Amino acid sequence: MSLVRPTEPVPVDKLGRTHFIGLGGAGMSGIARVLLQSGVEVSGSDARDSDTLRDLERMGARVHVGHAAENLDTAETLVISSAIREDNPELAEARRRGLRILPRAAALGALLLGREGIAVSGTHGKTTTTSMITVVLQHLGVDPGYVIGGKLVTTGLGADAGVGEVIAVEADESDGSFLMLSPKIAVVTNVEADHLDNYSGIDEIHENFADFVDRVERTLIVGIDDPGARRVAEIARERGKKVLTYGEAEDADHRITRVRARGFSTEFTLQTADGEPIDGTVAVPGRHNVLNAAAAVVVADELGHDLEVAVEGVADFAGAARRFELKGEGGGVGVYDSYAHHPTEIEADLRATRAALESFSQDDEDVPLGRVVALFQPHLYSRTRIFAEEFANALSLADEVVVMEVYAAREDPEPGVTGETITSRVGHDRVRYVPGREEAVRRVAELARPGDIVLTMGAGDVTELGPHIVAALAAAAGDTRND
């Protein structure tokens, strides 16, 4: 994969019948759903059938399993992701006909045109922050549109057109596609080195974020604790943009203080320069999630809503798919799933889990201190090679670690790069390299004991293993309940 060439969005009412290659994907299906709700004729194909395809079919989309030139039928616009190869028969047919071909991000950008668009970017936290913005605005009586990379627990959906002017979306920096969005308000959570299969290094990443700043029409909201994001804020101010900041730093416009774990919830206090402190609670663990909640509150404040009511709205957030998502409990062990696939994300989730377990034990002396068991599936050979040391350091925070084989995704295997590239660097001996899925499930179930938390971590298909671990734990404990 490489950086995409920016394409300016086309107004929704000019798209005509729109065909998606890879319609069942999280990003594509969300855009397609909103277009259908907006009155656009939609068709699409995917390599395999799925519940997502059938849901879109029920909404009126023409759905095809498998790729073929005739699937385009009378389409006027084709939407593709950067993962679509040039030899795809539908793409080849669209080029032969001279159809309008839009990258996924340009189709997403079309949804922002003429609306109060909010775009959330950053190396980490995009899905959670966009989800929190949506939930907070719903609490405030707004029915926003949204397109996120996971499903909201409260709605069961990953996208919706909403009613009115406001729409919140994720702005993906991984391949530069966020440069096809022109939001009224943008959030930058943090800026770190990642996706180095696309970028030459952190300097090029900063350059792209600087270009993104130029596309923000009104206000940039920045997580000031992060050095990379702070630099983006400085660039934005130099270019005359309105900048609002949040974080624990003393110079934050919206300052977070007194962050404290309460089981799997986190309490915090929000302080502004000209207001009284406001206490709040977010029902997910971790300081990083408090910062995500602060970003959502600042967005609501910038839209003119009452700050105290916005903080109240954070408590409505019940989570998003793959963001510390409970998969079940077996034998007294809770099993959660995390999308964490970068060392910073892994460290944040492991520290949050540890703080939650310590909170349970402190609040009830009869509750023994549980352990953290991590099942990690590396994502991409290049990322595994580049960040092997950092992955090892982050995973060493867990009490027990199982590392699977690398999930290749879009890459071909690299000689000498495996999950063992990481395990050989972990700073304790409670780590093991277990390549296969079934063996990994068995080993995790053997390692965990009552009171522990198991975290399945990674951007690949490790997410499918949570229920199997729950079943294995329950079977080992003789628990016949269907958790």
UniProtKB/TrEMBL annotation:
One Gene Ontology MF term: ATP binding
Residues in Mur ligase C-terminal domain copies: 322-460
Annotated positions binding ATP: 122-128
Signal peptide start-end: none
Any one Gene Ontology BP term: regulation of cell shape
Coiled coil region boundaries: none
Keywords on record: ATP-binding, Cell cycle, Cell division, Cell shape, Cell wall biogenesis/degradation, Cytoplasm, Ligase, Nucleotide-binding, Peptidoglycan synthesis
Broad class of where this protein is predominantly found: cytoplasm
Family, similarity comment: Belongs to the MurCDEF family.
HAMAP family attached to this UniProt entry: MurC
Listed name of the protein: UDP-N-acetylmuramate--L-alanine ligase
The species this protein was found in: Nocardiopsis alba
Gene label: murC
